[in-house]
Write a structure and sequence with these properties.
Three copies of one chain form a homotrimer. By secondary structure, chain A is an alpha+beta fold. Chain A contains three helices and eight strands.
Chain lengths: 137, 137, 137
């Protein structure tokens, strides 16, 4: 498995990691199959969404903050309960198909690392999932 | 990988694609293993939930609309920021186990394509994930 | 595939199943690869988040209840529409990497079964996903 390093620069920060994930696909020598991109942090997530207009993830940050405000009378003593909840809503991994060594993404899709308790140095793990035996593609 | 075509008929529309996914499992010749059903759109998602009572997905649509209203003073110039956020909350793919060539789903589960910016012609990609070597099942 | 049994003890109840999933990895003889932990219920989900402080999942339960109240004028006649919606927001499965026979989780991560319509006897299915051929790790 390949580790990707991500530096975030705000409490809530979305970083487009599509190129790093594609590089990991190359290093893992996946031709046809799939990879899982796994986020090992509990106050961050990973998702797939539009990469063209940066306003999309800005709106996403605002929508999540409205649904899960940072200050909400939570019990968790570290004070970042909202970040944990946003991480659950986002999800801890994405599974991506690979064809001919390239990530199979829709035209507008990018892979986003989603920090909800930054800024921090973060990591993503990319692991290969094989194609089923006997499958021609 | 196999492509499924989905035609949606409203801005928010949930379409049960379980039969098409099962057909894709057959075409991919997956006996025991898993498939990923991947949605390549940024204003749609895919999920697994009840298929018996259509009121469940109607309620889901209303619940998501309440949490993420279509009009919310968003920045994204295309006007569909809410659809992008709902797509993130829903998720871009589901991973399903396959036993004896059949999707392993719970009694009440169906696979749903979730359009949040329809009506449109949409697609899903189904790819096979192999069972681990040496695993008997 | 290996089945895990989970007994929940409240309507909304989060149960740490990390040890049972690790035991399933052993039974499936996965050395290096991945597993999918699939929830076959439509009013429950599975997620990955902090396992150290039980207040984190208590806060998560409260946050979800605020976003999706149990009583909301829903149509679904069984009265548990909110549980279905929370299940969709949580997700029906998690995919976890395995290295040297051990789940590759972040320091603070645990695997949580999330019941939104308990208490009940519930199940999770764990299936192995192979590493891609020719991948050394």
């Amino acid at each position: 498995m390949v580790e990707i390093e991500v530096r975030t620069s705000a409490r809530t920060d979305f970083v487009d990691v599509t190129r790093q994930v594609q590089a990991a696909v190359g290093r893992l020598q996946v031709a046809d199959g799939a990879v899982v991109v796994f986020n090992p942090h509990t106050t961050a997530g990973v998702t797939v969404n539009e990469g063209a207009d940066p306003d999309v993830v800005r709106d996403l940050a605002a929508i999540l903050e409205r649904a899960v405000p940072w200050s909400g009378g939570y019990r968790h003593a570290e004070g970042n309960a909202a970040a944990h909840a946003k991480a659950v809503l986002t999800g801890s991994s994405v599974t991506l198909l690979v064809r001919g060594g390239q990530l199979a993404l829709g035209t507008w899709q990018a892979v986003w690392f989603c920090d909800y308790d930054g800024p921090r140095e973060r990591r993503l793990w990319v692991g290969a999932l094989g194609a089923a035996p006997g499958v021609g593609g």
